[in-house]
Design a protein that fits this description.
- The model has no long low-confidence stretch (mean pLDDT 92).
- This protein is mainly alpha-helical.
- Strands 1-3-2 form a three-stranded antiparallel beta sheet.
- It has two domains: 39 residues, no CATH class; 80 residues, Arc Repressor Mutant, subunit A.
């Protein structure tokens, strides 16, 4: 549906203004769809992001700093999220043997199993984009990369 109809705003200052509003609106739309999926698994999208990063690091511990650098939402309180994931048994936190001020975070088997269950829903997540072709998705990815310079 057209942005103007969705937010009931008939005019924008220019196409750049409309683009900014459209990106923000679309982010909220997509975040709500994703949150619905992750709610089934009792995790948030940001917690999923941490688990995804840790799976990519599997067998190598990640520091809180590394997680913060790689998070999609740079404003996330990673330390608090790691603690919640630890309480759910999805990650382990240990003091780094080489640097006692550093905490190493490792995904647990339970965390890997949870991600495997979520992976089964990849087609459902891909369906969020059913209204655009694969070529359009590539083009949009290129445009967004170009926009960020």
């Amino acid at each position: 549906m057209e942005l103007e109809k969705e937010i009931k705003q008939p005019k924008f200052r220019n196409e750049y203004h409309k683009l900014a509003v459209n990106i923000i609106y679309t982010y909220g739309w997509f975040a709500n769809l994703q949150a619905g999926i992750f709610k089934e698994f009792n995790i948030t999208p940001s917690q999923f992001n941490i688990l995804r990063i840790l799976r990519g690091q599997y067998h190598k511990p990640a520091t809180i700093i590394l997680l913060k650098e790689r998070m999609l939402d740079k404003m996330s309180d990673v330390s608090r999220m790691v603690e919640r994931l630890k309480n759910k048994g999805l990650v382990k936190r240990e003091l780094c043997p080489d640097n006692r001020r550093q905490v190493d975070v490792i995904i647990t088997e339970k965390g890997l199993n949870l991600l495997s269950e979520i992976d089964k829903l990849n087609e459902k997540q891909d369906a969020f984009f059913k209204n655009i072709s694969y070529a359009e998705a590539q083009k949009l990815n290129n445009l967004l990369d170009k926009m960020r310079g």
